[in-house]
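Example pasted here:
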Amino acid sequence: MQICGLERAVVRAQVLQKVADLQEAISEGATSFLLTEFKYMGVFMVRPSPSQHVLLLQPAPARPRSL
């Protein structure tokens, strides 16, 4: 069975539409993943920083002198 030029063009258009839909879905998923990842990174980087800042600014304890 031979596919005529018009049928071939229709099939090609359908395939291109499916590929475009797939690309859009992948793009949306990747964007969603990255935004979620940045939110978690922000929580784990910004939240502990005040306590780390306070701990790093405290003077070191005095060491006992050896005789």
